[in-house]
């Protein structure tokens, strides 16, 4: 097993630490170009913030995305930061259809200003149903005290340097890194949520929900379960451990999780110099460029009116610097999402206050629809689709245990409100 020279990639993973931003601030001239397409209702002083772009890549090693590496990742299963106190109950399901939510991505974004955010990860989940996302659209406009029923949820988890789960020493960034605790057992179907319900026959398989138990049963656990329970020494602890090992080895039975990627970061300013960067971009490109362009065109077909075309043009101009980006990260006072279209943007009053400390939420990152193409989501009428998902988090990144639910604003390309 070769474990040398991995230091670099791990450093890149840590790149979301906000400290490193100061280095490359000498690209101001480029920003002025965006100013000629001002929208009247867009209080645009256009003083652009340094944005970090996220790109997906196949993980380099099978351990690269384990939780002790503090990864930013998309698809597959979450690498829970606090492995014990996972979100539970209604937090894990779509408020609209009641199905357990699917893991979309997580961003490792520690904040240096205090110890309690030494480790800090944001997790995004969503329902697979476009119908639910369309309903979610109306819900997100509801203001306090109305309860919003969401199909997209974001959780924030943070840990101080000294914590029960990980060594306080810097990780080696290789296969020898181990977490200090095994973490809570997870659902054998989705591998995502806590498996606190057992199969009543074998008492080995664990599930987050009855829905996932039923799906596992239909897709093969029925047989496996019989073998486990008919096994002659099934009361014997050895047989029981055998069963556990068997089930653990195929930890995630669901075949409908999205493909797993590592998210690598680059400063957007790296792409500013000129657009000749074809070679540079091609390097980490997983899909041909024309595929990305098709995506963008099909998005554009849905637009109505000049305002949207104009807004789209400036969005497109900015994205074109690095068309494969799936994520734009910028957590600083006054930073705003780059909205693809005019319709369906929140006003300040549409952004709620922190559920926990009552303080303000601020924009932290946005997810672009390119991700759906890396996930192989089809372009059908009822397939999942969005123009952008903007994530807002507690400005104070307030303290406290467990996973705190933050706020996502979804802009759809089809809803012109
Ligand atoms: Zn749903
Ligand atoms: Zn499950
Ligand atoms: Zn069973
Ligand atoms: Zn707060």
From TrEMBL:
Domain of life from the UniProt record: Eukaryota
Region called Disordered, residue ranges: 1-46
Biased composition (Acidic residues): 21-46
One GO MF term attached to the UniProt entry: zinc ion binding
Biased composition annotated in UniProt, kind: Basic and acidic residues: 1-15
Keywords, alphabetical: Metal-binding, Zinc, Zinc-finger
Domain MYND-type: 187-225
Keyword Zinc-finger listed: yes
Xref: Pfam families: PDCD2_C, zf-MYND
GO cellular component: cytoplasm
Transmembrane segments: none
Stated name of the protein: MYND-type domain-containing protein
């Amino acid at each position: 097993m070769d474990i040398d020279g991995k230091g670099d990639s791990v450093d890149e993973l840590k790149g979301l630490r906000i400290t490193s931003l100061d280095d490359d601030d000498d690209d101001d001239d480029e920003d002025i170009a965006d100013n000629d397409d001002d929208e009247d209702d867009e209080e645009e002083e256009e003083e652009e913030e340094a944005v970090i772009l996220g790109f997906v890549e196949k993980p380099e090693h099978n351990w690269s995305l384990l939780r002790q590496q503090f990864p930013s990742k998309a698809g597959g299963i979450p690498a829970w930061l606090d492995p014990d106190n996972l979100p539970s109950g209604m937090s894990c399901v779509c408020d609209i259809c009641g199905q357990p939510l699917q893991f979309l991505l997580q961003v490792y974004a520690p904040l240096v200003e205090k110890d309690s955010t030494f480790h800090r990860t944001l997790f995004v989940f969503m329902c697979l149903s476009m119908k639910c996302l369309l309903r979610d659209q109306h819900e997100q406009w509801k203001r306090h005290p109305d309860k919003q029923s969401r199909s997209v949820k974001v959780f924030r988890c943070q840990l101080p340097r000294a914590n029960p789960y990980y060594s306080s020493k810097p990780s080696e960034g290789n296969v020898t890194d181990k977490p200090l605790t095994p973490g809570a057992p997870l659902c054998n179907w989705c591998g995502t949520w806590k498996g606190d319900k057992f199969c009543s026959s074998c008492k080995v398989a664990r599930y987050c929900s009855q829905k996932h138990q039923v799906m596992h049963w239909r897709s093969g656990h029925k047989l496996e379960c019989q073998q486990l329970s008919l096994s002659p020494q099934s009361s014997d602890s050895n047989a029981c451990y055998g069963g556990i090992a068997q089930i653990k080895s195929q930890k995630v039975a669901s075949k409908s999780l999205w493909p797993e990627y590592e998210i690598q970061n680059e400063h957007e300013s790296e792409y500013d110099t000129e657009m000749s960067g074809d070679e540079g971009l091609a390097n980490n490109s997983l899909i041909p460029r024309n595929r990305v362009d098709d995506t963008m065109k099909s998005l554009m077909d849905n637009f109505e009116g000049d305002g949207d075309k104009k807004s789209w043009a400036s969005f497109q101009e900015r994205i074109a610097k690095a068309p494969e980006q799936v994520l734009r990260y910028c957590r600083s006072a006054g930073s705003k999402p780059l909205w693809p279209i005019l319709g369906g943007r929140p006003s300040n009053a549409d952004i709620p206050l922190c559920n926990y400390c009552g303080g303000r939420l601020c924009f932290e990152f946005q997810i672009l629809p390119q991700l759906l193409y890396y996930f192989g989501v089809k372009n059908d009428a009822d397939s999942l689709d969005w123009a952008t998902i903007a994530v807002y988090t507690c400005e104070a990144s307030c303290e406290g245990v467990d996973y705190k639910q933050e706020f996502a604003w979804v802009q759809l390309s089809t809803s012109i409100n």
